[in-house]
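Intended use. Records like the one below are meant for learning the mapping from a protein sequence to its folded structure. Do not use them to infer anything beyond what is encoded.
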Amino acid sequence: MWPLYAAGFTTAFGAHGIAANLGGFSDDANTSLLVLGGLLALYDGAEVVLKPVFGSLADRIGAKPVLLGGLVFFAAASALYAIADSPGWLWAARLGQGAAASAFSPSASALVARLNPAAKRGRAFGSYGFYKSIGYTLGPLLGGVLVWAAGLRLLFTVMAVLAAAVALWAAIAVPAVPPLPKQRQTLADLARRLADRSFLAPTAALAAATAALSVGVGFLPVSGAAAGLGTVATGAAVSALAACAAIVQPHAGRSLDSGRLTTRTGLATGLAITAAGLLCAMLPGLPGVLTAAVLIGAGTGLITPLGFTALATSTPEERMGQTMGSAELGRELGDAGGPLVVAAVAALATLTYGFAALAILLATGPILTLATHRRTAPAPQ
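Structure written out for the chain above:
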Protein backbone atom coordinates (compact mmCIF):
# COMPACT_ATOMS: atom_id res chain seq x y z
CA MET A 1 0.00 0.00 0.00
CA TRP A 2 2.82 2.45 0.71
CA PRO A 3 3.74 3.04 -2.96
CA LEU A 4 0.05 3.81 -3.62
CA TYR A 5 0.06 6.35 -0.80
CA ALA A 6 3.24 7.82 -2.34
CA ALA A 7 1.48 8.04 -5.72
CA GLY A 8 -1.38 9.97 -4.10
CA PHE A 9 1.14 12.31 -2.49
CA THR A 10 2.89 12.79 -5.85
CA THR A 11 -0.19 13.88 -7.76
CA ALA A 12 -1.25 16.27 -4.97
CA PHE A 13 2.24 17.70 -4.48
CA GLY A 14 2.69 18.15 -8.22
CA ALA A 15 -0.68 19.80 -8.73
CA HIS A 16 -0.48 22.37 -5.92
CA GLY A 17 3.29 22.74 -5.63
CA ILE A 18 3.68 23.90 -9.21
CA ALA A 19 0.37 25.77 -9.50
CA ALA A 20 1.06 27.83 -6.38
CA ASN A 21 4.42 29.00 -7.74
CA LEU A 22 3.77 29.54 -11.44
CA GLY A 23 2.58 33.11 -11.15
CA GLY A 24 4.95 34.38 -8.51
CA PHE A 25 8.28 32.99 -9.61
CA SER A 26 8.13 31.97 -13.27
CA ASP A 27 8.91 34.47 -16.02
CA ASP A 28 7.49 31.96 -18.52
CA ALA A 29 4.07 32.15 -16.85
CA ASN A 30 4.16 35.80 -15.85
CA THR A 31 3.55 37.46 -19.21
CA SER A 32 -0.18 37.91 -18.51
CA LEU A 33 -2.97 36.65 -16.30
CA LEU A 34 -4.47 34.96 -19.36
CA VAL A 35 -1.28 32.94 -19.89
CA LEU A 36 -1.17 32.03 -16.20
CA GLY A 37 -4.82 30.99 -16.26
CA GLY A 38 -4.21 28.83 -19.30
CA LEU A 39 -1.28 27.07 -17.65
CA LEU A 40 -3.31 26.42 -14.52
CA ALA A 41 -6.26 25.11 -16.54
CA LEU A 42 -4.15 22.72 -18.64
CA TYR A 43 -3.52 20.30 -15.77
CA ASP A 44 -7.15 20.14 -14.61
CA GLY A 45 -8.48 20.13 -18.15
CA ALA A 46 -6.44 17.07 -19.02
CA GLU A 47 -7.74 15.31 -15.89
CA VAL A 48 -11.39 16.09 -16.69
CA VAL A 49 -11.08 14.58 -20.17
CA LEU A 50 -8.78 11.63 -19.51
CA LYS A 51 -9.51 10.22 -16.05
CA PRO A 52 -12.55 8.17 -17.13
CA VAL A 53 -10.58 6.94 -20.17
CA PHE A 54 -7.62 5.72 -18.13
CA GLY A 55 -9.95 4.28 -15.48
CA SER A 56 -11.58 2.09 -18.11
CA LEU A 57 -8.15 1.15 -19.49
CA ALA A 58 -7.11 0.00 -16.01
CA ASP A 59 -10.06 -2.41 -15.99
CA ARG A 60 -9.07 -3.73 -19.43
CA ILE A 61 -5.33 -4.31 -19.01
CA GLY A 62 -4.87 -4.13 -15.22
CA ALA A 63 -4.44 -1.18 -12.87
CA LYS A 64 -0.73 -1.68 -12.16
CA PRO A 65 0.49 -1.14 -15.76
CA VAL A 66 -1.58 2.06 -16.02
CA LEU A 67 -0.25 3.22 -12.65
CA LEU A 68 3.36 2.63 -13.69
CA GLY A 69 2.88 4.15 -17.13
CA GLY A 70 1.33 7.28 -15.62
CA LEU A 71 4.14 7.73 -13.11
CA VAL A 72 6.83 7.24 -15.75
CA PHE A 73 5.13 9.70 -18.10
CA PHE A 74 4.76 12.19 -15.22
CA ALA A 75 8.50 11.93 -14.60
CA ALA A 76 9.23 12.42 -18.31
CA ALA A 77 6.90 15.42 -18.61
CA SER A 78 8.47 17.04 -15.54
CA ALA A 79 11.99 16.43 -16.89
CA LEU A 80 10.96 18.00 -20.20
CA TYR A 81 10.78 21.52 -18.80
CA ALA A 82 13.66 20.94 -16.37
CA ILE A 83 15.90 20.26 -19.39
CA ALA A 84 14.40 22.52 -22.06
CA ASP A 85 13.53 25.60 -19.92
CA SER A 86 11.43 27.55 -22.41
CA PRO A 87 7.83 28.86 -22.38
CA GLY A 88 6.62 26.43 -25.04
CA TRP A 89 8.01 23.44 -23.19
CA LEU A 90 6.38 24.68 -19.97
CA TRP A 91 2.98 24.35 -21.64
CA ALA A 92 3.86 20.89 -22.94
CA ALA A 93 5.18 19.78 -19.54
CA ARG A 94 2.11 20.98 -17.68
CA LEU A 95 -0.23 19.25 -20.15
CA GLY A 96 1.84 16.08 -19.91
CA GLN A 97 1.72 16.15 -16.11
CA GLY A 98 -2.08 16.46 -16.15
CA ALA A 99 -2.43 13.60 -18.64
CA ALA A 100 -0.09 11.42 -16.58
CA ALA A 101 -1.92 12.16 -13.33
CA SER A 102 -5.13 11.18 -15.13
CA ALA A 103 -3.61 7.72 -15.55
CA PHE A 104 -2.04 6.96 -12.20
CA SER A 105 -4.53 8.69 -9.89
CA PRO A 106 -7.65 6.56 -10.66
CA SER A 107 -5.44 3.49 -11.04
CA ALA A 108 -4.07 4.02 -7.53
CA SER A 109 -7.63 4.39 -6.17
CA ALA A 110 -8.69 1.20 -7.95
CA LEU A 111 -5.71 -0.68 -6.51
CA VAL A 112 -6.52 0.57 -3.01
CA ALA A 113 -9.96 -0.98 -3.43
CA ARG A 114 -8.78 -4.21 -5.09
CA LEU A 115 -5.97 -4.90 -2.62
CA ASN A 116 -8.12 -4.52 0.49
CA PRO A 117 -11.12 -6.55 1.63
CA ALA A 118 -14.38 -4.67 2.04
CA ALA A 119 -14.01 -4.65 5.84
CA LYS A 120 -10.76 -2.67 5.63
CA ARG A 121 -11.42 -0.32 2.73
CA GLY A 122 -12.48 2.60 4.91
CA ARG A 123 -9.13 2.63 6.70
CA ALA A 124 -7.25 2.14 3.41
CA PHE A 125 -8.98 5.06 1.69
CA GLY A 126 -8.58 7.14 4.84
CA SER A 127 -4.81 6.59 4.78
CA TYR A 128 -4.67 7.24 1.02
CA GLY A 129 -6.55 10.50 1.49
CA PHE A 130 -4.29 11.45 4.40
CA TYR A 131 -1.16 11.32 2.26
CA LYS A 132 -2.85 13.17 -0.60
CA SER A 133 -3.79 15.91 1.87
CA ILE A 134 -0.18 16.03 3.07
CA GLY A 135 0.82 16.57 -0.56
CA TYR A 136 -1.69 19.39 -0.93
CA THR A 137 -0.41 20.95 2.31
CA LEU A 138 3.33 20.68 1.64
CA GLY A 139 3.20 21.34 -2.11
CA PRO A 140 2.92 25.14 -2.02
CA LEU A 141 5.35 25.44 0.91
CA LEU A 142 8.14 23.11 -0.26
CA GLY A 143 7.57 24.11 -3.87
CA GLY A 144 8.03 27.74 -2.92
CA VAL A 145 11.28 26.95 -1.12
CA LEU A 146 12.63 25.05 -4.14
CA VAL A 147 11.65 27.77 -6.60
CA TRP A 148 13.08 30.46 -4.33
CA ALA A 149 16.36 28.53 -4.09
CA ALA A 150 16.95 27.76 -7.76
CA GLY A 151 13.93 28.58 -9.90
CA LEU A 152 11.04 26.65 -11.36
CA ARG A 153 13.34 24.17 -13.12
CA LEU A 154 14.48 22.77 -9.76
CA LEU A 155 10.87 22.11 -8.74
CA PHE A 156 10.24 20.25 -12.01
CA THR A 157 13.46 18.30 -11.48
CA VAL A 158 12.35 17.24 -8.00
CA MET A 159 8.96 16.20 -9.38
CA ALA A 160 10.66 14.10 -12.07
CA VAL A 161 12.87 12.34 -9.51
CA LEU A 162 9.94 11.81 -7.12
CA ALA A 163 7.68 10.30 -9.79
CA ALA A 164 10.46 8.05 -11.10
CA ALA A 165 11.27 6.83 -7.58
CA VAL A 166 7.61 6.08 -6.83
CA ALA A 167 7.28 4.24 -10.16
CA LEU A 168 10.28 2.04 -9.32
CA TRP A 169 8.94 1.42 -5.81
CA ALA A 170 5.49 0.51 -7.12
CA ALA A 171 6.98 -1.80 -9.76
CA ILE A 172 8.78 -3.74 -7.03
CA ALA A 173 6.30 -3.66 -4.15
CA VAL A 174 2.76 -3.45 -5.57
CA PRO A 175 1.42 -6.88 -6.53
CA ALA A 176 0.00 -7.41 -9.99
CA VAL A 177 -3.80 -7.37 -9.94
CA PRO A 178 -4.96 -9.00 -13.17
CA PRO A 179 -8.08 -7.69 -14.91
CA LEU A 180 -11.22 -9.66 -14.20
CA PRO A 181 -13.47 -11.10 -16.91
CA LYS A 182 -16.50 -8.96 -17.51
CA GLN A 183 -19.59 -8.91 -19.65
CA ARG A 184 -19.79 -6.59 -22.61
CA GLN A 185 -21.09 -3.18 -21.59
CA THR A 186 -23.02 -0.86 -23.89
CA LEU A 187 -23.22 2.91 -23.51
CA ALA A 188 -26.74 2.46 -22.17
CA ASP A 189 -25.47 0.05 -19.52
CA LEU A 190 -22.77 2.51 -18.49
CA ALA A 191 -25.29 5.37 -18.32
CA ARG A 192 -27.63 3.32 -16.13
CA ARG A 193 -24.82 2.36 -13.76
CA LEU A 194 -23.53 5.92 -13.45
CA ALA A 195 -27.07 7.24 -12.94
CA ASP A 196 -27.73 4.82 -10.09
CA ARG A 197 -27.98 6.31 -6.62
CA SER A 198 -25.16 4.08 -5.36
CA PHE A 199 -22.83 6.01 -7.71
CA LEU A 200 -24.46 9.43 -7.80
CA ALA A 201 -24.81 10.02 -4.05
CA PRO A 202 -21.17 9.44 -3.03
CA THR A 203 -19.85 11.13 -6.18
CA ALA A 204 -22.02 14.20 -5.55
CA ALA A 205 -20.76 14.32 -1.96
CA LEU A 206 -17.15 14.04 -3.15
CA ALA A 207 -17.73 16.81 -5.71
CA ALA A 208 -19.31 19.03 -3.05
CA ALA A 209 -16.40 18.42 -0.68
CA THR A 210 -13.87 19.25 -3.37
CA ALA A 211 -15.82 22.40 -4.28
CA ALA A 212 -15.75 23.59 -0.67
CA LEU A 213 -12.07 22.74 -0.32
CA SER A 214 -11.20 24.68 -3.46
CA VAL A 215 -13.25 27.65 -2.29
CA GLY A 216 -11.64 27.56 1.14
CA VAL A 217 -8.11 27.51 -0.27
CA GLY A 218 -8.87 30.18 -2.86
CA PHE A 219 -11.22 32.60 -1.12
CA LEU A 220 -10.49 32.45 2.61
CA PRO A 221 -7.24 34.41 2.05
CA VAL A 222 -9.27 37.02 0.14
CA SER A 223 -11.74 37.28 3.00
CA GLY A 224 -8.90 37.51 5.51
CA ALA A 225 -7.11 40.21 3.55
CA ALA A 226 -10.33 42.25 3.36
CA ALA A 227 -10.49 42.04 7.17
CA GLY A 228 -6.94 43.38 7.46
CA LEU A 229 -5.20 40.07 8.17
CA GLY A 230 -1.68 39.52 6.91
CA THR A 231 -0.43 36.75 4.66
CA VAL A 232 0.95 34.80 7.61
CA ALA A 233 -2.46 34.63 9.30
CA THR A 234 -4.33 33.70 6.14
CA GLY A 235 -1.65 31.18 5.17
CA ALA A 236 -1.94 29.59 8.60
CA ALA A 237 -5.71 29.31 8.15
CA VAL A 238 -5.33 27.52 4.80
CA SER A 239 -2.74 25.20 6.34
CA ALA A 240 -5.17 24.46 9.18
CA LEU A 241 -7.82 23.54 6.60
CA ALA A 242 -5.53 21.04 4.87
CA ALA A 243 -4.23 19.68 8.18
CA CYS A 244 -7.75 19.05 9.52
CA ALA A 245 -8.68 17.25 6.31
CA ALA A 246 -5.58 15.07 6.63
CA ILE A 247 -6.13 14.24 10.30
CA VAL A 248 -9.83 13.39 10.04
CA GLN A 249 -9.62 10.99 7.07
CA PRO A 250 -7.93 8.00 8.76
CA HIS A 251 -10.24 8.29 11.79
CA ALA A 252 -13.30 8.43 9.53
CA GLY A 253 -12.15 5.33 7.64
CA ARG A 254 -11.53 3.35 10.83
CA SER A 255 -14.93 4.36 12.23
CA LEU A 256 -16.61 3.14 9.05
CA ASP A 257 -14.80 -0.21 9.14
CA SER A 258 -15.64 -0.78 12.81
CA GLY A 259 -19.34 -0.03 12.29
CA ARG A 260 -19.35 3.08 14.51
CA LEU A 261 -20.28 5.15 11.45
CA THR A 262 -22.41 4.43 8.40
CA THR A 263 -21.80 5.83 4.95
CA ARG A 264 -25.17 7.57 4.81
CA THR A 265 -24.81 9.24 8.19
CA GLY A 266 -21.14 10.09 7.64
CA LEU A 267 -21.67 11.74 4.27
CA ALA A 268 -24.64 13.76 5.53
CA THR A 269 -22.72 14.84 8.63
CA GLY A 270 -19.67 15.77 6.55
CA LEU A 271 -21.78 17.90 4.22
CA ALA A 272 -23.46 19.61 7.19
CA ILE A 273 -20.10 20.38 8.85
CA THR A 274 -18.68 21.71 5.58
CA ALA A 275 -21.74 23.91 5.01
CA ALA A 276 -21.38 25.22 8.57
CA GLY A 277 -17.77 26.08 7.80
CA LEU A 278 -18.82 28.08 4.75
CA LEU A 279 -21.35 29.95 6.87
CA CYS A 280 -18.61 30.71 9.41
CA ALA A 281 -16.59 32.21 6.56
CA MET A 282 -19.20 34.95 6.49
CA LEU A 283 -18.05 36.12 9.95
CA PRO A 284 -15.52 38.97 9.97
CA GLY A 285 -11.91 38.74 11.07
CA LEU A 286 -9.62 35.93 12.13
CA PRO A 287 -12.23 33.98 14.17
CA GLY A 288 -14.43 33.58 11.11
CA VAL A 289 -11.57 32.62 8.77
CA LEU A 290 -10.00 30.15 11.22
CA THR A 291 -13.29 28.52 12.25
CA ALA A 292 -14.30 28.20 8.60
CA ALA A 293 -10.96 26.57 7.75
CA VAL A 294 -11.22 24.03 10.57
CA LEU A 295 -14.83 23.06 9.80
CA ILE A 296 -14.34 22.88 6.03
CA GLY A 297 -11.25 20.73 6.52
CA ALA A 298 -12.99 18.42 9.00
CA GLY A 299 -16.10 18.08 6.85
CA THR A 300 -14.22 17.29 3.66
CA GLY A 301 -11.95 14.93 5.57
CA LEU A 302 -15.02 13.01 6.73
CA ILE A 303 -16.59 12.85 3.28
CA THR A 304 -13.60 11.75 1.20
CA PRO A 305 -12.80 8.25 2.55
CA LEU A 306 -16.48 7.43 3.06
CA GLY A 307 -17.36 8.45 -0.48
CA PHE A 308 -14.64 6.38 -2.10
CA THR A 309 -15.35 3.40 0.15
CA ALA A 310 -19.04 3.55 -0.77
CA LEU A 311 -18.14 3.59 -4.46
CA ALA A 312 -15.75 0.66 -4.08
CA THR A 313 -18.34 -1.35 -2.14
CA SER A 314 -21.11 -0.86 -4.70
CA THR A 315 -18.92 -1.41 -7.78
CA PRO A 316 -18.23 -4.80 -9.42
CA GLU A 317 -14.52 -5.60 -9.06
CA GLU A 318 -14.09 -5.78 -12.83
CA ARG A 319 -15.38 -2.18 -13.24
CA MET A 320 -13.40 -0.58 -10.38
CA GLY A 321 -11.12 1.53 -12.55
CA GLN A 322 -14.00 2.90 -14.60
CA THR A 323 -15.91 3.88 -11.46
CA MET A 324 -12.91 5.54 -9.84
CA GLY A 325 -12.10 7.45 -13.01
CA SER A 326 -15.69 8.68 -13.32
CA ALA A 327 -15.78 9.64 -9.63
CA GLU A 328 -12.53 11.57 -10.06
CA LEU A 329 -14.18 13.40 -12.96
CA GLY A 330 -16.97 14.42 -10.58
CA ARG A 331 -14.39 15.75 -8.12
CA GLU A 332 -12.67 17.77 -10.85
CA LEU A 333 -16.00 19.32 -11.83
CA GLY A 334 -16.59 20.24 -8.19
CA ASP A 335 -13.08 21.66 -7.99
CA ALA A 336 -13.89 24.00 -10.88
CA GLY A 337 -17.57 24.58 -10.14
CA GLY A 338 -17.28 25.65 -6.48
CA PRO A 339 -15.07 28.67 -7.10
CA LEU A 340 -17.19 29.62 -10.14
CA VAL A 341 -20.38 29.63 -8.06
CA VAL A 342 -18.83 31.72 -5.30
CA ALA A 343 -17.19 34.12 -7.76
CA ALA A 344 -20.40 34.59 -9.76
CA VAL A 345 -22.46 35.40 -6.67
CA ALA A 346 -19.68 37.60 -5.27
CA ALA A 347 -19.60 39.57 -8.54
CA LEU A 348 -23.32 40.30 -8.19
CA ALA A 349 -23.28 40.94 -4.44
CA THR A 350 -20.30 40.33 -2.11
CA LEU A 351 -18.01 37.45 -1.21
CA THR A 352 -20.07 36.89 1.94
CA TYR A 353 -23.10 36.01 -0.17
CA GLY A 354 -20.91 33.76 -2.31
CA PHE A 355 -20.01 31.68 0.74
CA ALA A 356 -23.69 31.57 1.71
CA ALA A 357 -24.75 30.36 -1.74
CA LEU A 358 -22.35 27.42 -1.71
CA ALA A 359 -23.29 26.61 1.89
CA ILE A 360 -26.96 26.37 0.86
CA LEU A 361 -26.09 24.05 -2.02
CA LEU A 362 -24.12 21.76 0.28
CA ALA A 363 -26.80 21.78 2.97
CA THR A 364 -29.37 20.34 0.56
CA GLY A 365 -27.61 16.96 0.82
CA PRO A 366 -28.23 16.41 4.56
CA ILE A 367 -31.75 17.86 4.23
CA LEU A 368 -32.63 15.41 1.45
CA THR A 369 -31.08 12.54 3.42
CA LEU A 370 -33.17 13.41 6.48
CA ALA A 371 -36.34 13.77 4.39
CA THR A 372 -35.74 10.41 2.67
CA HIS A 373 -35.08 8.72 6.02
CA ARG A 374 -38.35 10.04 7.44
CA ARG A 375 -40.31 8.83 4.42
CA THR A 376 -38.83 5.35 4.57
CA ALA A 377 -38.89 4.93 8.37
CA PRO A 378 -41.46 2.40 9.59
CA ALA A 379 -44.59 3.83 11.09
CA PRO A 380 -44.97 3.42 14.87
CA GLN A 381 -47.23 0.55 15.89
